[in-house]
Amino acid sequence: MDCAGCVAKVTRAVERLPGVSEVEVNLMAERLSAALAPGTASAETVTREVTALGYAATPLSETAAAAAADDGHSHGHAHGQDDPADQGRPWWRTGKAKLVWLLGGLVGAAYLLSLLLPERLTYPLFLASTAVALVPFGRRALALARAGSPFSIETLMCTAGIGAAVIGAAEEAAIVVLLFALGELLENVAAGRARAGIRALAGLMPRTALRLHADGTTEPVTPERLAVGDLVLARPGDRVPCDGVIEEGRSALDESPVTGESVPVARGPGDAVVAGSINADGALRIRVTRAAADNTIARIIRMVEDATASRAPTQRFIERFSAWWTPGAMAVSLLVILLSPPLLGWDWWTSLYRGLAVLLIACPCALVISVPAAMASGLSAGARRGLLVKGGAALEAIGATQTIAFDKTGTLTEGRPRVTDLLPAAGRSAEELLGLAAGVEQGSAHPLAKAILAAAGERGLTPPPAREQTAIPGRAVTALVAGRRISIGSPRHAGEAGTALGPVAEALAGLEGAGKTVVVVLADDALLGLIAMRDEPRGDAATGITALAGLGVRSVMLTGDNARTGGAIAAGLGLAVKAELLPDDKLREIAALRQAGPVAMVGDGINDAPALAAASVGIAMGGGTDVALETADAAVLKDRVTGVAELVALSRATMANIRQNVAVAVGLKGLFLVTTLAGITGLWPAILADTGATVLVTLNALRLLRWKPELG
Ligand SMILES: Nc1ncnc2c1ncn2[C@@H]1O[C@H](COP(=O)(O)OP(=O)(O)OP(=O)(O)O)[C@@H](O)[C@H]1O
Ligand SMILES: [Zn+2]
């Protein structure tokens, strides 16, 4: 039921290439089968996977792509497979629909005629309808068998159809194939819905952009024609046509297309804006920073589509399961046919008939579709609310986490510390302290450095030039300023450098107890003073942590800040804390937490990429930055801690949906297996149960598209 056939074909083509090692071929095959969802093998996906292996534009990648393009789409997966020829057509005009119309017409005509004509005259009509349907199914079954999967849903269907016709149940055979074709069609329609859910994001792009020329005139163009570096005008009420940076103007922007958060945010010169956001009140001149095909919305759509194609562990399990399920089902039905006459005394016709019905009931398609359908809906529902998850595996893992570790700066807090207190040592001035500190911090991108530079700027101080700047990550920065070695760092670092902090210990403890981060400024190891800064917790941080606790998830704050400051902030938010962690300690801490169960790590994706990678699931938080989108397994595009709890809720809703689907699929089959063997129901109720289960499961999955976070 997977793309084993397709992968096998590509692999065989590549194997024939001279100079390609077996290891390479195996590696590629492994990657391909992991990456391809049923029915998605196309030349592009193959090329992408092969390129990811580092074989771009080599004979290997070209051969693989050619093999996939050759008949990547004709390999059959009974349900949910798209024919490229059907793209852009309304559902009632697709190839699958045509088959249903044709069959429906034939079977309907046969029934009408059977009211007037004797059976021996209408019987051939039913036979003909069955034959019409068996041609496409049979072709797909053969293609699959040639590609190495003889036991497909198609094989099952053909065996049952031919068998029924042979034992004289042509009327039922015709209904069986009609219902099967109908099931496929309905499922395709539903799958299209799920895709439309995410495609709808693209509809939020404006159709025209106003390009600004140097002479001040504007020219309407389609956003696709904007080039990086162009200047565009967004009038009040317009949708922003591109990802870009504001050059001129201020406005409130509703960024809900990307973040799912419709409260407008104030943006001004120098701020980044994303395509699709609504410009509420001011005219903006925006410099284009990304081409249309590459903008945030386009990339989100691509990521969700890729995510839908990658498989979750549950899905892999179900696929492995179906690989032996179908041959097993055929064996069981054969046993029923062979053993029931001697053991149960059924006549041959009854045993054949019931054996064939068992075969139909055994069709695993409802089970096979249950996971991908729910995952696709869950991923789309999330993306529309600014919760981006990069695949079923991540979506499954998020809800299973028992502990979530949060980075402090920029994640639980705003990430914009401000200087609150300056405590110069005896005989020093506040200006001297701040000025020298600003000199050292000039080269640093640390949030604390920005705070110190901003404070110096506010007081009109020009930072003195500094040389030989060096950073000791997680501890301090030092530089030569005005001939002296100035260092700014944590109190712990100062203590280790041998500076006696005794005289300021009390003041230090008081500031830290108030949740302020205090840095010690030293000049040639002598105390120059203390600078205290405070980074406000995010407005919704406490709510987010409480919501997680309500979901039974434990939260821990990991910080490089000192224990008292971290403790004060954590106490205010109601979570545990591990403080004074050096960057490596954070990784060790995550590894330790993982001993007890799956751990998610939430960071801003900028300096904590290693920690995000070390966790079972890495979640980036932040307004759609590149890093956030690329590095983590999931991203909360709105800057809100509650988004993390929403992710957990979404994951659990999706997994619950999958469990319902599996229960429906297995339950219906079990029920009809019993009634079939007992002789209560026959062939067409059996296929109705199969089609019904498939449709129910898909419809249930679609309910997820309307998912809304409800956090208590
Ligand atoms: N550029 C710097 N200027 C001043 N102090 C610094 C600098 N870099 C590091 N420090 C000191 O080292 C400590 C830990 O820094 P680190 O970067 O590991 O943590 P953080 O990013 O501030 O906090 P968190 O780990 O919560 O994100 C800081 O609290 C500060 O005392
Ligand atoms: Zn089926």
TrEMBL record:
Keywords: ATP-binding, Cell membrane, Membrane, Metal-binding, Nucleotide-binding, Translocase, Transmembrane, Transmembrane helix
Compartment annotation: Cell membrane; Membrane
Membrane topology: Multi-pass membrane protein
Principal place of residence: membrane
Catalytic reactions of this protein: Zn(2+)(in) + ATP + H2O = Zn(2+)(out) + ADP + phosphate + H(+)
Transmembrane in keyword set: yes
Entry-linked InterPro entries: ATPase_P-typ_cyto_dom_N, ATPase_P-typ_P_site, ATPase_P-typ_TM_dom_sf, ATPase_P-typ_transduc_dom_A_sf, ATPase_P-type_domA, Cation_Transport_ATPase_IB, HAD-like_sf, HAD_sf
Keyword Cell membrane: yes
Chain ranges passing through the membrane: 99-117, 321-340, 352-375, 662-680
Signal peptide as annotated in the record: none
Basic and acidic residues bias: start-end ranges: 70-82
Region annotated Disordered, chain positions: 66-89
EC number assigned by the record: 7.2.2.12
Domain HMA, residue spans: 1-58
Record-linked CDD domains: HMA
The family this protein is said to belong to: Belongs to the cation transport ATPase (P-type) (TC 3.A.3) family. Type IB subfamily.
Name of the protein this chain belongs to: P-type Zn(2+) transporter
Organism listed in the record: Plastoroseomonas hellenica
Name of the gene this protein is made from: cadA
